[in-house]
Every structure is written in structure tokens, then in C-alpha cells.
Amino acid sequence: MLQKKESNGKILFHLFLLVVSGGYLLTAFSLGAPVVDAQLRPSFFPILIGLLAVAFSAVLLSREIREGKESRPSANQAAASGDRLSYMIIGATALYILLFSLIGYVISSVLYVFAIMLIFSNRDKWLQKLAISIVIVGLGYLVFEQIFGVRLPALWE
Amino acid sequence: MHFIELVISSFAMLFNPVTLAYVIAGFLIGTVFSAIPGLTATLALALLLPLTYSLDVTTALMACASIYMAGMCGGSITATTINIPGAPSSMMTALDGYPMQQRGEGALALGHASFGSMVGGGLGAVLLIVLAPFIAELSLLVKTTGKFSLLAFAMIVIVIAQRGNMIKAAMAACIGLMLATVGLDAMVPVTRFTFGLSDLTAGLELMPVIIGTFAISEIMIQAGSLKDSNAVASAMSRVKAIRRRDFLPSFSSIRKIGVGCYLKSSLIGYFVGTLPGAGGSMGSFLAYVETVRTSKEPKSFGKGNPQGIAASESANNAVCGGALVPMLTFGIPGDPITAIMLGVLVINGIQPGPQLMAEQAGLIAPMLASLLFSAIVLIPLTLFLLGPYFIKIVSIRKDVLYGAIALLAVVGSYVATYSGFQMIMTLVMGVLAYYLRKNNFPVITLLLGFILGPNLEEFLRRSLTLSNGNPATFFTNLDSLFFVLLTAVFVYFLVIRKPLKSPVAAPQG
Lengths: 157, 509
Known about the structure:
Number of helices of chain B: 24
Largest sheet of chain B: 2 strands, antiparallel
Structural class of chain B: mainly alpha
Mean pLDDT of chain B: 87
Largest sheet of chain A: 2 strands, antiparallel
Shape of chain B: globular
Strand order of the largest sheet of chain A: 1-2
Order of helices and strands of chain B: HHHHHHHHHEEHHHHHHHHHHHHHHH
Strand content of chain B: under 5%
Structural class of chain A: mainly alpha
Distance between the termini of chain B: 47 Å
Largest interface: A-B, 68 and 61 residues
Oligomer: heterodimer
Strand order of the largest sheet of chain B: 1-2
Distance between the termini of chain A: 53 Å
Number of helices of chain A: 5
Mean pLDDT of chain A: 87
Low-confidence stretches of chain A: none
Helix content of chain B: over 70%
Radius of gyration of chain A: 23 Å
Number of strands of chain B: 2
């Protein structure tokens, strides 16, 4: 079941690449004629790259579909759990970016570093982890704002 | 000659305590990042890239050079102690380093690795300092069509160097090139692929592409392989304490390895470094194979022969000097680190290319002085002073490490433009790079496609405009024809001919 899921995921990713390449190529065509009076126009290079990308992604997709039909022993429970942790990193980072300008560097960063630490370990000793997060964010503040003079967003400007 | 004098006088800059502090800090960060399996000097440089905005560009480049040199030798620490190379360039070191560790000679193996790195790094830097001005002068002979053929040569070689993975490498390069076309066209005032977003009009910034590709994706990859990290930590805990006096290799053992081995390996590393996409791992592999081939005791390799360590480490550190040749003379980065160093130049408004050595010699000379200083002073000094604590340093808690890295990466992407949009782009690039890496796409070709893309397009359009659209211009101009033929030679050797095989088994890990 997991093997099939992983294989489907790979096929889906290669399909995504093909769709993006196709979309890029179509947009490149909409930029106008590639050559006018022996002069290369802005669409020439994107069309060339788009054609190559479509060709490569189509070859890779067909290869992936062919290989997907054969059994692959690589997938296991650990890989699925690893994927879940990676998705949690994406979610935490997206939320951090949202909160960064809303509630400022300090609070959002403490929450973010704390979340990343929990993802990379377990939920025990959470008070110690919170304290470490505060120290890391404090050091970050020192490096960015005090040493390198970067203005970080604050809750109250 | 003038340039060599300039480099020599640049050593005086290292007497400035602030500059010296940045060079030493860069070296230590590079060593730690390359020693920890999963982290790389590339990641260290990507994380520190935003800070170069606030730094003097000369100091920033000097720190980059020391990170680069450290990144090539730090990987030997875990390659030797636990048989897991901290960096790919130290893969061959593990073949003889780990058997020495098992015999209780781990410290000596690290001493040999450090000595080899010092010799290779030093020779590579000297060759770079001596030869780069001449190559820079030659590069001025390359005109528009030749420049396109040279860039195409670099892109093709980078792709075909990813043997067994060429279509994926080509696809990743196409993605990089596609990203490079976003924004205002360089020759006609037309926006492309901006989809109405004004933030994209000036094109994608280099910072989110580098941080997303090398930092955010790395955090996600590491989160997905926590079990491996725990295995490394448990292997580390079993390593016995290392004593400082055990590091020093005896003069007789160095003599047994032979000056020829150090010289030959350094030269191999240097010339491999000049090739786009080859990198430290290929340099050390070829030097190792050559050393085994010419050895009187080939069967002793893979069983703890210090000559194997010396060959591998001399070569991978000599790569640093070689890889900076195309970057400084043609503006072509050969690997991710030189690509990020190129980014430092671009961020500071300096145009890389053939004119760089002539117009910015005062900027480049201190960087090369720092490279040489890192090789001959910082490599042995770091081993001697910090060697006994290496294992403790690289055993740092992963949750603390990645918490700090994630913060540096995301806030770093904000620093460039004080823009939330760049942070979002960093995450988008990170997710894209994560899926690409998970599906075995080499992201180095994506980065080089993104960096070389604008010039590739500009020189293609200019060449064809000059020749009224006649593509034969690439074969009728001598400079262009030279690179076309060179491309054919590389295609023959890297695609058509069978690859070399390692004479001994690859390390387990």
C-alpha cells in the first residue's frame, strides 16, 4: 500500500513538472513571435527552454510510470513518517512568515524555533526547549539587529 | 606580476582584528558544517549570505574563501571517525581513514588528512594566484558568440557530469533557466512570466533561490531522515577521546607517502576544479584512483593506507583553487559554493566576468590571500587546537541546530529587501527543491541554470542578431568553435566512454 502511495507521489510530481513546463511553454508562445526580421524577440529563449523542459519532463514521466508498474521495496513506515515531519516544517514556516510581519520578530520567532525543535525531537522537556528557543531568538536578534544593523519588525513600531 | 604583489600585500589585511575574526569565524563555521553529516559548507554559506549585505564586500569574500577551504577538509572528521563522510568530497578519505580509526590510529588519520588538505589547498591557491591573471587576459579574447558557446559548454558539462542522472539534471537546469526568465526582458522593455505581480517585475532575487534551495529544503530533508541523524549521534557517542599529540604524522610517514603523491593529487584536484560541475568528490576520486594505479602496494588501499587519505584530501582541497578560476575569469561558477560567492559579488553590484580581475583586482586579491591563509595556517591550527573536541562539536543536539538554522534561513531571506514576498519565495523555492531532491534531481544544475540563464540568453540573442539569425556563426568564429569542440570532447569522455570504477569498495554509511 505504502509502496503504491510512494510510486503515485513520484508520478504526481513528474506530472506536475510536465504541467508546469507545458504552462510555461504556452505562456512563452503568448509573448509573440520568436523571430521578427532575423531578430530574436523576448519569446525566443523561453520557447526554446519550454520545449526542452516539456521533452525532458515527458521522458521522465513515462520512465516513472514504467518503473511504477514494477515493485519497489524502498517505501516503508519510516519514510511516511519522515514525509509527515517535512510537511510540518512547511506548515510551521508558512505560519511563521504570516506571523512575522503581524506580531513582530520576537514572539513569532520564539514560536517558530520552538515548533522546529519539537519537530526534530519529541514533546518531553518542553520547558527546556522553550528556554533554548528564547536564547536562540535572542542571539538571532543580537546578530541581525545589533551586529549587522538589520531592522526587524516589532509588535509595536 | 602586479596581481601577485597585490595578493601578497593583501595578507596585511589579516592583521586587522575584525577581518581576521570574520575569516577565522568563517573557517570554524565551515569546518563544523562540513563535519556534521547532512550539513554542508554550501548550507553555511547560504545562511551567511544575507549577512554579507551589511559587511564590507572584501571582508565578506575573505570569509567566503575561508568557509570554502574549511568545507573541503571538515568532512574528513566524520569520514574517519564513524565512516560517514561529513561532505561528499571526503568519501574517498573514509576508505582508508576509517580502517585506521578501527586500528586505534584515528587521530593520526586526521593528521594525515589535515596535512594533505594543507598541501593541496595551499598549492591550489598558489596556482590560482599565479595563473588566474593570465587566464583572465585570455578570456578577454572571447567575444559574444564565444561567450554563448562557453556558457553553453558550462551548462552541458554540469549536466553530463551528473552521470546516470542526466535527464533529471537537464530538467533541473531547465527549471533554473525558466526561473531566470521571470521579469523584465534584458533587451526589450517587456515583462515575462510575472502574472501581474509587481514584485516579480525585477525578476526573482538570488537570495530566496539560494536559501530556499540549500537551507529550507535541507531542513525538510533532515526532518524526513531523523532516524539517520540519531544513528550518527549514537555512532559518535562510541568514538573514543582523541589526544592532541596523536595528530602529528611522523616525518617518515609523510616521506613514505611521497612528495609526488601530494603534488600529483593536488594538480589533479586543481584541474578537476576548473571544470564546471566536477567538484571535490570527483577530484578526490580521480586522485585516489591514480594513486592506487601507480602504487607498488595497491592491495593495501582501503585497509588504512595513509597515502589514500593524502591523495584524497590533497585533491579535494586543491579543487578550491581550481573552481575559482572559471568563476573569477569567466563568471562561471563550477559548484554551489562558487555560485554563492558569485552571488556575493552580484548582490554588491559587481559584475562578474572577464573584466573582473582587471577592474576589481583590489577586491579579489584579499579573497585569494584568505584562501591561501586558510589552507596553510587555519587547517593545521584548527586541527591542533580543536581536534580533541571535534566529536563533541559535531554531536550538537539536532533540534537546537535545526531550530537555529531555520530561523537564520527565513529571517535571512527577509534581510535582502525587507520584504515578506521574498520570504514566501524562499519557502516556495525550498518546497520545490525539497521535492526535486527527494526525486533525485541535482539542484546544483537548477542554481547554475538560474545564475547563467540571463547571460546565456543575452549572448545567444546578440550573437544571432549580429549574424542576421545565422546559427553557423557559432562554428565560423574561432573562439566559439573552440568551445563547441571542447563540448564535443567532454561529451565523448563523460557520456560515450565508460566511467572509471573505484579500485576499492565504497564506504558504508
